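Ops channel
N.P.: pipeline sanity check, posting one input/output pair.
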């Protein structure tokens, strides 16, 4: 099912996600629904926080042909490089806004798959950016918080105006 993506500045985006403890069909359905929602948006990542489920679940697929979905359950960063890179990030919860965010260029991540099996990923490039962006969502952080207060307030005002516009249409 395609799930509703919360839009900034919805306060629910700032809730901290709890670890997954039961690896069952419910979790598999959540991952499937998140993947369907991500591909429909379209996006290259989605965190459960964005669909108002506050558990540590992330799906990512940075391939062009949508052929490599990976679910990261209870992800942890084991190591991150001192070397940093700036990338123009976007966010499905902040539609139409792209802006530069500086993050470590390489990260080593440990996570669990939907069956509860642990795995590790050495990520760089867009995958490293996306994993860090999604893990921020699980901590209740949205990428606009890295921007200046002036930019952030302009974005908030713009999206709230759009939100009101949508309600009026409805
Ligand atoms: O809000 C999200 O977490 C999804 C976000 C992930 C992300 C993208 C770029 C840098 C960091 C994190 C998106 O997918 S925004 C949409 C987007 O970037 C994109 C959409 C279609 C094709 C390629 C990229
Ligand atoms: Zn996002």
């Amino acid at each position: 099912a395609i799930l509703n993506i919360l839009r900034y500045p919805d306060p629910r985006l700032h809730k901290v996600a709890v670890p997954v403890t039961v690896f069952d069909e419910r979790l598999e359905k959540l991952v499937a629904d998140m993947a369907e929602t991500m591909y429909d948006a379209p996006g290259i990542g989605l965190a459960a926080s964005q669909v108002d489920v506050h558990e540590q679940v992330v799906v990512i697929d940075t391939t062009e042909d949508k052929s490599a979905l990976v679910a990261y359950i209870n992800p942890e960063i084991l190591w991150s490089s001192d070397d940093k890179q700036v990338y123009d990030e976007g966010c499905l919860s902040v539609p139409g806004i792209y802006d530069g965010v500086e993050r470590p260029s390489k990260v080593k991540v440990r996570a669990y798959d939907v069956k509860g099996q642990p795995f590790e990923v050495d990520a760089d490039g867009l995958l490293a950016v996306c994993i860090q962006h999604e893990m921020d969502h699980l901590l209740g952080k949205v990428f606009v918080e890295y921007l200046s207060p002036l930019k952030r307030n302009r974005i908030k005002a713009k999206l709230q105006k759009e939100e009101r516009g949508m309600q009026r249409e409805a």
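N.P.: looks fine end to end. The chain has a mean pLDDT of 97.
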